[in-house]
Design goal:
Blueprint: H1 11-16, H2 21-31, H3 41-54, H4 72-75, H5 90-103, H6 113-126, H7 133-145, H8 156-167, H9 173-184, H10 192-201, H11 214-221, H12 225-239, E1 245-250, E2 253-258, E3 261-268, E4 273-277, E5 298-302, H13 310-329
Helix pairs in contact: 2-3, 5-7, 6-7, 8-9
Amino acid sequence: MTGKLSPTMTVREFENGYWYLDDLKDFAIQIGIPEAKKLRKDEIERAVLTFLRTGNLKLPTKRALRKTGVKDVARGLSLNLRIEHYTSNRETKDFIVREARKIAPNVREKSGVWYRLNRWREEQIINGARPKYVDLVRQYVALNEMERFEKVPHGRYVNFVADFLATEKTVTRADAIAAWVKLKAMDTPKNYASWVQARRSQLFLFPSSVKRDPAIEVWMREHPGELGAIARRWFGVMRDCGDDVRELLHDGHPTACVGEAAFGYVNAFKAHVNVGFFRGAELSDPSGLLEGAGKSMRHVKLRPEREVDAAAVKKLIETAYTDMKRRLKAE
C-alpha cells in the first residue's frame, strides 16, 4: 500500500502502509518528534504511532542519542574495558569475533546477530548495567549458539522472509523477496499471516468440483475437430497433475482445481484455444507464452496452424498446479 504520511491519517492506514526511512524522518521532523534525525526506523514508527493514537510527541527511546568523549576504539579495545562510547565499525566487530573464537572456536556467525547484539547492549545500559566488552563477546557467542532467534517485534521484512522460507519449503529467498514486494503494496499488515490471508482471498474456490465432471465430457463432444483435440489434450495434462485434481464446468469451460481451488482451464474459440491459469500473473514464464493484462489471470493462445512449444506449455501447467498446492498448504 502506497500513500502519503499525514498527521490526520488513521493508525490502520499507518500500520498497513510501508514507509521508507527518509520519508519517516521527514514526517517526524514535520510533526515535531524530538531528536527525529537521530532515531532508528523502528523508533520513529513507535513515535508516530503514539502521536496518531494520543496526539502526544514523545521521545520513543531512553538510549543516549548524543555521545561525547573518546571513542572506545581510541581508548584501546580489551575484554575488561567498560562500554562507554561504542562504535559499530569493522575494528570493533573484528575484535568481538576474534575474542569470541577464543571462547568458542567453532562459532559461526548467524544472520541478524549484530542487530540483536546492539539491542542487547543498549538494553543493558538503559537498565543501569555497566557491561564490559567481555560481556559483549559472551553475548555474541550465546546468540550464535541459539537454534533460532526470537522474532524482532518491529522487523517486518526480516520476520516475513523468515516465516515465508520456514513455511513454504520449496521456495527460494528470491521468491520470499518477491512476495514481500507484493505485500508492501497491499492494504494489510506487513506479516506472513496477512500474506497468507490475502492470497486466500484471491483464490477462486469451487466447492462443487468433482473427480470427473460429466458436463466436461459433454463440452468436449460439443467441440470436435482440431480445436477440440487441442483442448482435450491440454486439459488431460491438467487432470494428470495429481490425485487431488478436481474439475467442473465453470463459466462454460472446463476448469481444473487442486481440491476446490482452481488453477487452470481450457476454452475453445472460433480459431484458437486458450490454456488459462487463474494465478498466471505470478507464474514464471521464461518462454514468454503467457498473454493477458488482468490482475491475476493469464492464458496461452494455441492455434492449429501454429507449432507450439509443448514442453513449455506442460511446464506452465505443472507450475500452476504446484503453486496452488503450495498456496493451500500455507493455509
